[in-house]
Amino acid sequence: MKFNYLLEIYDTLISEILNSKSCPIAQIIDFASSNYLESFYIYTVDFKRTDSDIKYKIEGPIHNWHPQAPVLKDCKNNIVSDLEKLLPQIEQKLNIKHQNKKLKWSLNEKSTKLFILVNTNLEEIEKVECYFLYCNQILKIETEVIQKRIKEIISGINSQEQIETYILKKQLALGNLAAKLIKIIKAEDVYELYTYSATFSEQDCLKIIYSYIEKVIRFLEKEYLKYLDKNSPASIKSILNIKIQLEPFYIALQQSCKRSADQKAIRIILHSFSKIAEVDFKQKITYNELLYASEILPIVYQHISNKQKAKKCLKDIMLEFNFNTLEFFDFYTDEINKELNKQEDDIQKYKILYRYLKHTNQKQLYTNNKWNPNLPSAKKQIAGWLEEEIKYLNQQRILESYSTEHSISVEMKTKFHTDLSVPQLSYFFSLLVQAGIIHPPTHRAIFKFIAEHFKTKMTNTISVDSLNTKYYNVETATKSAVREKIIELLNFTKL
After folding, report:
1. Cα separations (Å) of 408 from 105, 133, 411, 413, 465?
2. Pick from 282, 315, 439, 449: most CB atoms within 10 A?
C-alpha cells in the first residue's frame, strides 16, 4: 500500500474506524500474502516444577498479529525431555490436531514455557477481530517504514536548522494526532490506553494506532532529542518510564518529610512533581519537566539521606538547581524575613541583605534548565527581591526624615474609606502585583500609595511600616477574608 505523505497511514485508519468502513477481508488476505505473513493462534503453557510433580497452566489462545502476542524470536524447537509426556494430555485439552501445530520452547532459570502455534486461515476469524489484527500488523510494518524514511530524509539534509525544522514539524504533527486520539478514546487513566478488550472494538483499534504514533514519537526522542521542542508535552510512555525511575526517590521523600527539618522545602518539591508521580494525562507534562525532575530528585534524596554529612542546606540546593517556582520564592524570602525581623536596627538588616545578595549572585547553577520556563530563574527572582529590600531600606530612611514635615499635608488629602483591614488591604495589593495587574517600581511605592489614599474603620492613618510587615507576613485568616471579597467581585461579573 502506497501513501501520499509520511503519516497518512494513521489518518487513513482513523478515518476508516470513525466512519465504520473497515477494509474487506479479501484486502486483509492480500496484505498478508504480499507481506509473507503467517497466521496462527498461540497457546502458552507455563510449567512449574515441584519436588514431586510438574504442574502447568494454559493461557490463550492469542493470535500472532495481536499487539500483546508473545515474542517467539529466541524460542527453541527442541522438546524438553521430561515434559514430553505431558504433551498428549495438553493437546487433548486444547483439541489440537497434530498436522496444524508447531511447538516452541522458552527456557530460563525461573520457568519453562511452551508455545503451541496452531495455524488458522484469516477467513475463519471473526471480521472485527480480523480488522483489529490487521490494524496492528499494517501499523507495525508502516511504522518501521516511517522511522526508516525519517532517517533517510535527515541524512540528506546538511543544515542543522533545516533538520530542526523538519523534526519539529514531525513532532507537532505526531503530538496533535496523539492528543486527538486521547480525546476520542476517552480512557479513564493512562494505563487504559495500553489495555485491549476481548471484543476488538473500534476503541481497541484506535488504541493500537495511538501506540504506534507514540512509537514514532519515542523514536524521535531517542534519535533526535536535541532538536525537539522541550516545552511540548512528552509522550506518555516517557512519563511512565520517568515515573518508574523516580518513584523510589519520591516515596522516600514523602516518608522523610514528616521527620525532616527541611519539611517545608520537601513539601514544595513533592507538590511540584506530583503530576509526574500521578501521571495525569489531563495535565501537560513537558520534556523539560521530566529532564529537570530526573536531575533534582536524586540529588534531593541524597541530601536528605546524608543530612549529617551535608555541607549545604536544602534551600541552597534548590536555588542551585534553579527551582524557580513561586512557592520556593515565597519560602526562601520568608526565611530571610525571619532573620530580618529579629534585628533591632537597620545596619544589621543591611548586613543580612547584602550577605544574601552576595551569596545569591555568586551561586553557580548546576543546570541551564528550570522548572517553570515562564518565570525568571530562581537566582534572578531572589536577587531582584534582595535588591528591592535594600532599596526599600534606603528609601525608608530618607522618607522618615520627612514624616513629621509632611504629616499635616497627608492628613488633608482625600482618602478612600475601605472595609478591608490593613492586613487585608496589604494582601489585596500583593495579589494585584502577583497577577501583573499593577507594576509598581518598588514595594515601598505600594505602601506609600495605600497610606496616602486609604483609611479603614479602625484608623484614618495607615502606617507604612505596618503595611510592610503585613505585606510579607500574611496570615491564613487574612487570605480567607480577601478570597471571599474576590469571589464577591466575580459574582458581580455574572450577566
Report:
1. 98, 87, 5, 9, 18
2. 315
Give residue for cell 545578595.
357
Distance of alpha carbon 436 from alpha carbon 300, whole angstroms? 32
Q: Could you tell me how many helices (H) and strands (E) the chain has, helices first? A: 19, 6
User: Residue 327: is it exposed, middle or buried by C-beta count within 10 angstroms (0-12/13-18/19+)?
Assistant: middle
Spatial CB neighbours of 173, under 8 Å, sequence gap ≥ 6:
7
Q: Which three cell numbers stand for residue 255?
A: 516518608
Q: How far apart are CA 15 and CA 10, in angstroms?
A: 9
DSSP states of 257-296 as a string? Answer: HTT-TTHHHHHHHHHHTHHHHHT-TTS--BHHHHHHHHHH
Full 3-state SS string of 213-236: HHHHHHHHHHHHHHHCCCCCECCH
Residue ranges in the chain modelled with pLDDT below 70: 1-3, 97-99, 259-261, 307-312, 367-368, 401-413, 495
Cβ atoms of 293 and 249 within 8 Å: the answer is: no
User: What is the pTM (predicted TM-score) of this model?
Assistant: 0.70
**Distance between CA atoms of residues 37 and 19, nearest Å:** 28
Q: What does the block give as the cell for 381?
A: 527572582
Closest of 387, 470, 492, 391 to residue 425, by C-alpha: 470
Question: Please, what's the b/e burial string for 281-292 (b: 16 or more CB within 10 A of its CB; e: otherwise)?
Answer: beeebbbbbbbb
Cell of 16: 476508516
Element (H, E) at 194: none
Which helix (H) or strand (E) element contains residue 408?
helix 403-412
| Tens digit of each residue's pLDDT (9 = 90 or more) over 128-179 | 999 999 999 999 999 999 999 999 999 999 899 999 999 999 999 999 999 9
pLDDT digits (tens, 9 = 90+) for 306-330: 755 555 688 888 888 888 889 999 9
Q: Give dist(CA 295, CA 300) in Å, integer.
A: 9
